[in-house]
Write a structure and sequence with these properties.
- The structure is a single chain.
- The protein has a domain of 160 residues: NAD(P)-binding Rossmann-like Domain (Rossmann fold).
- 25% of the residues lie in helices and 16% in strands.
- Strand 2, helix 4 and strand 3 form a beta-alpha-beta unit.
- Helix 2 crosses helix 3.
- The longest helix has 12 residues.
- The radius of gyration is 18 Å and the shape is globular.
- Bound molecules: NADP nicotinamide-adenine-dinucleotide phosphate.
- The site of NADP nicotinamide-adenine-dinucleotide phosphate has 26 residues, from helix 2, helix 3 and strand 2.
Length: 263
């Protein structure tokens, strides 16, 4: 994820691009290129919301600087937990010592428990906002106008981090309930990628690939994204990268890097 968010209007996909060295980090040794490519956007988003912001640029989404909150021993509920940001946020929160409730649709339960979720809520059967109370932090990786429904699940003094904060309309209710609502816009960071790479290499954090497509099929990849219910990340591959994968191009499958803990 390079020169983000300052890349400008001419965004797109390409085989070659120039990048400032400060936006780059070495690929984790134990990940192939497909899995490594799946990390930066979602990994940096989860890192900057939950671990360290890492810069002092003006936040375009709110006047105050976003501050991560201490997670050790805290309860964290993650909505949209199976998606790109969600599955990495879950693992970072666990790594920091939180107890995590993952909210997603039915088919993601085994996946999220495997990643360390202490509890799973299937939102197609149960509304988390009706059942859960006194949470320290809700990370809403779906976000948008519906995020305010989570305010009632959070204890006074707790926090709500909507990853997609646009349209959030619950600021008055948040003030009444004594809940902090805070968001940030992700930024490129080679330093933070290097820290994430260490966790990926040790197997403490894993990255899931929903599906891979050759660059020439970027439009089909976007159709997959629009269909929703993503588990991990969609990756566009250049050159021979897809040939190295066990999964077929375009077929949703989770491909795990080996767990390297203890090796
Ligand atoms: N602030 C920033 O800088 C920043 C950075 C990156 C992304 N974002 C934003 O963050 C959001 C998430 O991005 P992403 O890449 O993680 O998206 P994603 O990979 O598409 O994941 C979204 C996940 O949400 C789940 N979901 C959909 N509707 C749901 C619902 N009603 N309740 C619970 N889960 C639901 C989906 O699966 P199931 O429905 O099957 O559970 C899916 O796994 C996007 O809006 C994106 O624009 C913001």
């Amino acid at each position: 994820m390079i020169r983000f968010p300052s890349f400008g209007e001419s965004l797109g996909y390409a085989e070659y691009v120039s990048a400032p060295a400060s936006d780059l980090a070495a690929k984790p040794r134990h990940l192939d290129h497909i899995h490594a490519a799946a990390v930066p956007m979602s990994g940096l988003t989860a890192w900057q919301f939950l671990i360290e912001l890492g810069h002092n640029e003006q936040n375009p989404l709110q006047s105050e600087r976003h501050s991560p909150v201490p997670l050790a021993g805290k309860s964290v509920m993650i909505n949209g937990a199976a998606g790109g940001v969600g599955h990495l946020a879950l693992q970072l929160a666990k790594h920091e010592g939180a107890r995590v409730i993952a909210v997603a649709s039915t088919r993601h339960e085994a996946f999220l428990r495997e990643l360390g979720a202490d509890e799973f809520i299937d939102y197609t059967k149960t509304k988390p906002e009706d059942d859960v109370r006194d949470i320290d932090l809700v990370v809403d990786a779906v976000g948008g106008p519906a995020s305010g429904r989570f305010l009632r699940t959070i204890r006074r003094g707790g926090a709500l981090f909507p990853i997609f904060p646009l349209g959030f309309a619950g600021h008055d209710e948040a003030a009444d309930r004594g809940v902090t609502v805070s968001a940030t816009q992700v930024r490129s960071s080679g330093d933070q990628l290097a820290k994430l790479a260490r966790l990926l290499d040790s197997g403490e954090v894993r990255v899931a690939v929903d599906s891979t497509y050759p660059l020439s099929e970027a439009a089909v990849a976007h159709e997959r994204a629009e269909a929703g219910h993503i588990q991990g990340k969609i990756v566009l591959a250049v050159g021979d990268a897809i040939a190295d994968q066990s999964g077929q191009a375009g077929v949703p499958s989770v491909q795990w890097p080996p767990r390297m803990r203890g090796h």
